Amino acid sequence: MTGTRTGPGAESAGLAAAGGKLLTGAKVLVTGGTRGVGRGIVSVLAAAGADVATCYRQDAEAAAALERELKRNGGDHHVLRADLAQPEEIARLVAECGTRFGRLDAVVNNAGAISHIPYGELPLDEWHRVIDTNLTAAHLVVQHALPLLPEGASVVNVGSKSAEVGIPLRAHYTAAKAALAGLSRSLAKELGPRGIRVNVLAPGVIETEAIGALPAEQAAAMRERYSRKTALGRLGAPDEVGGAVLFLVSGLSRYVTGEVLHVDGGIS
């Protein structure tokens, strides 16, 4: 593996410094923002001046840690509990954003679910769980958020490189992410006349807590394997996904819609 990295706080601060306060006063909802890629997105957007609402399902410790971080940064931020597999909780989450913010200048659908199961053994309830969390939840979040989205608003749906290449044992996951791209392209055309942009951000292999939680040998093997596959020779970091989201929700990308932006280090 090549290259060196600094700590995540320094990375987010560096991205914010590079982009300035691009989102000062913007109101943003990021689903699934207390860990991993979602936390990187929240941290970068908050550092860029946005007021961010995010949600978590069950990891209260991670939520509390994020709340402390956001409080240090300043701004009007909210970390709310919501199970996005439950349609009524999605409605409640978006309504809460309306109450607290009055509008949403950007929506980032990051919350997701994944499992690794041979296709012949894939239970129907697990198919529904993964499809509902990765696809149906994004659809419902956007649908409920429509009254809160002004002209110039941006929707970013977090997809996956796997939707294009396919991965064994993840047929349900890749199907959901591929469908998310189709949904986004249709919404880009339907909502474009309202001045609302819709794009997909497709990360590659990102170094998150999930990799860190693996046994040391397994984590090292995974890093080595995927580093060899990328043009940059390393895994990505959550804040690097956050930087791409910052571009897509800011005015820097005001003529970009219906696109899939790959943040994958040139993986092959």
Automatic annotation (TrEMBL):
Instruction: Tell me the domain of life.
Output: Bacteria
Spell out the SUPFAM superfamilies in the cross-references: NAD(P)-binding Rossmann-fold domains
Alphabetical keyword list = Oxidoreductase
Q: Tell me which residues make up the Ketoreductase domain.
A: 26-204
Q: Name one GO molecular function term.
A: oxidoreductase activity
Which family does the UniProt entry place this protein in?
Belongs to the short-chain dehydrogenases/reductases (SDR) family.
Q: What is this protein called?
A: SDR family NAD(P)-dependent oxidoreductase
Name the source organism: Streptomyces armeniacus
